[in-house]
Structure formats: structure tokens, C-alpha cells
Write a structure and sequence with these properties.
single chain, about 140 residues, alpha/beta, about 10% strand, globular
Length: about 140
């Protein structure tokens, strides 16, 4: 895998030149489960894969927990609330403005497309929000 180049949808985003890499959602377009984390880390940016499955990393733990629950990660759409790595000082939380930018440009449309396909099949789309920033988006204000 290689680093993904930022798509045209990033043009004009205030984080276009600050955020490192671009890690798009991965998984089938007809997924019934969508997992949304807070943002990619250096490993995810390097590999271009959200929640990259490397030992002692979040992706490894996520994959093992899904297996334990009897779920197949390959059948889930997996991504983050922000699709590039934004390094902040003090804590690892994602800047709210970055969340808003990425939601409008990438994440919202991706989730709406998954939801539309699930609705056409008469099924719910299950979304697992992982981490405080994504959970705030999922639960709303």
C-alpha cells in the first residue's frame, strides 16, 4: 500500500497543506456496518489504510474485537471522522474545524451513500463511533 494523494475535495480546506496524507474509507459500498474513528495515525497515513492492523495498534485491537464478536472486518466500511493526520499539541483530539471540513467534503457524503444503499435493501446501517471526536459527531450536540 502507498500513501493516498489528497483528492480534489480537499482543495480549499484549511488543513489541505497542514494535514499529512489522506486515508479514505475502506470497505464495500454496501456495508451494513460502518466504523468511524477519530483520525489516522502515522501508520495509517504511511499505509493508506484506516485502522491499519499492526500489533499493539488500534487497528489490531479493533480487528481482534470484531473477530471476537463474530464480525468480519472485510465486510465493514472503516474510516475516520478526519481523513488526514493533523498533529496537535497537548492532546490527540482532532480540531473541530477539521471535523467540520472533512464531514462536509468526505465523511458525510460517504455515510449518506452507505445509508441510502442500506435503506434500499430495507436494512439499517449500523455505525460504530470510536473515540470522543467521532462519538460527538455521531451523538450530535
Amino acid at each position: 500500500m502507498a500513501k493516498s494523494k489528497k483528492p480534489l475535495g480537499c482543495t480549499g480546506c484549511r488543513y489541505e497543506h497542514i494535514g499529512e496524507g489522506f486515508v479514505p474509507f475502506e470497505g464495500p459500498s454496501d456495508a451494513r456496518l460502518c466504523i468511524v474513528g477519530q483520525g489516522p495515525g502515522p501508520n495509517e497515513v504511511e499505509m493508506g489504510v484506516p485502522f491499519f492492523d499492526a500489533p499493539r495498534r488500534a487497528g489490531f485491537r479493533l480487528s481482534r474485537q470484531l473477530e471476537y464478536a463474530g464480525l468480519n472486518r472485510a465486510k465493514a466500511a472503516v474510516g475516520n471522522i478526519v481523513l488526514c493526520l493533523i498533529r496537535t499539541t497537548g492532546d490527540d483530539l482532532v480540531p473541530p474545524r477539521a471535523i467540520a471540513e472533512c464531514w462536509q467534503r468526505h465523511v458525510g457524503p460517504a455515510l449518506h451513500a452507505l445509508e441510502a444503499k442500506a435503506t434500499q435493501r430495507g436494512e439499517p446501517l449500523w455505525v460504530l463511533w470510536v473515540g470522543v471526536p467521532s462519538l460527538k459527531v455521531g451523538l450530535g450536540k
